Amino acid sequence: MMSGEGDDAPVVGAPAPNLATNLSDSTTEDELLGMINAPTPAPAPTQTTPTPPPVSDPFGSSTAPIVPPAAPAPAPVVNQNAVNAQAKFLEERKAMQAKLKAKKDAAAAKKAASQPAPPVAAASAAPTPQKKSKPFGEGETLHPSSFKSVSVTDPQQRKEGGYFSSSTYWVYKFVINESNFVIRRFRDMVALEGRLHESCPGCILPPSPDKHKLRMMEEGTAAQSLEFAQGR
């Protein structure tokens, strides 16, 4: 019995000699021994499928299955009719939006034209000229019944006389009703205060002319000069 080259090859046995058919009554013992000792004919070679060598796997396994390449994916089918319909829809929508905008602008322009133009803002009125203060003349007489407010402001020192004989005195601005004024000496205001209190109720600013700081200074200086002259 002989075995093939591979383990998986089928076992083929040699055909045993049919001694029963070859033997006869006249076969001698020597012929019988020769038939037994005759060499066994070699079996015909069998055709076997060669086994492919194992494929080495880089990840460690000795063999790896051979996977056939995948078939390429089919190309997508483009529906040209759908593309054309979408482009047409976008164009129509754009045209409709432009038409609505033009209609809206025309309505706004028509409404603006129908409304009357707003009146032009009048120029700012010219400022009313303030009534200038009117000074009283030196010969005029003050009537207490003709005014209700008197204020004493703006004291000024004046000088009279020549170079060798000169005298200085103070004058004040008496403002009447905030529009008229007169400039008088302080002693004139002292005389006027009594008449004003008799004719109309009210007060004079400052409250009492004889308490004015400048007048007090003037009186104090005169008193000191008199005392100094008497002491000499």
Automatic annotation (TrEMBL):
Molecular function GO labels: phosphatidylinositol binding
Pfam family, one: PX
Region (Disordered): 1-76, 101-158
Residue ranges occupied by any PX domain in the UniProt entry: 148-232
Gene Ontology cellular component annotations, sorted alphabetically: endosome
PANTHER family registered for this protein in UniProt: FI18122P1, SORTING NEXIN
Superkingdom assignment: Eukaryota
Protein name: PX domain-containing protein
InterPro entries named among the record's database cross-references: PX_dom (IPR001683), PX_dom_sf (IPR036871)
Regions of compositional bias (Low complexity) in chain numbering: 109-130
Chain intervals with Polar residues compositional bias: 143-155
Bias (Pro residues): 40-56, 66-75
